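Glucokinase
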Amino acid sequence: MNDKKLIGVDLGGTTVKFAILTTDGEIQQRWSIDTNILDEGSHILPDIIDSINEHLKLYNMTPNDFVG
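Structure:
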């Protein structure tokens, strides 16, 4: 049985929304952060990476728990 997860990211103009899902599409966790558009948006990708890493630690998960 494959219990690996997926991470969904929805980048919007005011917020970035995240979800951890099963491969069947069941949402298990969700959160959001403000979209930082300062400096021509140069903070957006680092903020996304930092937020995902923080939540992986919070949920005691590693990248190996995910597909891809």
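The radius of gyration is 13 Å.
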